[in-house]
Amino acid sequence: MEQNAQQFFSSVFLAGQKVEQHHDYQPYFHIRGYLRHKYQQSGKTVSELAQACGYRKLEKFKRHLEAWLKAEKPVPGKFLGAIGVEPEMLCKVQVLDFDSWEEAVKSVRVPQCFSARLMPAVWQSVPLPENLTEAQTVTYVKDYALLRSHQCLINYSGLRVTWVWPDGTVSRRYSWPSIEYKNRLVYFKLGSAQPDTTQPGITRLAR
Question: Domain residues of the chain, as ranges?
Answer without folding.
Answer: 5-107
